[in-house]
């Protein structure tokens, strides 16, 4: 009986060991990927234009290794991936968050430049709300003031010049609309904005003529002529106009 009991104990022990080993084998986790590997994976997806997959890879890295140097890079690359995927508002929030958390990082000039680009890419036509155009100019100016030696300053200046011209076009469009509809004071105010804020505007001679016409009409309302647009630009310097 003792021998039988001993054998039974051995069999049960062996079965338990087998089950335990089996469970351990089935529950064995896949080794965690190191942060370097996740960075490489995210960058590979980014280069291939697989932006959603790139965001997933970089977010995974941030979750698993939040205090690593690679997580800092991943935060920036998440914003880049969204920008290239034309999700400009989302990218803008990520760039702003990066600047807020790492204001002294050496990559901040690039971050500010990209914020300007997020606004620039969303600007509309001159007959629409120019908010994005205004904000793009603000970011490019901020970049120029804080980092005048940044390698992309010349590009930022080109974009800013284009935005400023579009803002002047917007004011001109609105001023001309007011003039045509006999709102001479409102028209004058719009043209005055162009004269004050956009002195290098190509159509400045026409702006000044519109201003003179508005001032004359406002000073002599009884003699006001029926509203009409000015003659084409080629007639500006005609002394008999």
Automatic annotation (TrEMBL):
Pfam families for the chain: YfiO (PF13525)
Signal peptide from the UniProt entry: 1-23
Domain Outer membrane lipoprotein BamD-like as annotated: residue spans: 32-207
Highest taxon, organism lineage: Bacteria
Keywords of this entry: Cell outer membrane, Lipoprotein, Membrane, Signal, TPR repeat
TPR repeats: 35-68
NCBIfam families attached to this UniProt entry: OM_YfiO (TIGR03302)
Protein name: Outer membrane assembly lipoprotein YfiO
UniProt organism field: Desulfobacca acetoxidans (strain ATCC 700848 / DSM 11109 / ASRB2)
Native organism taxonomy: Bacteria, Pseudomonadati, Thermodesulfobacteriota, Desulfobaccia, Desulfobaccales
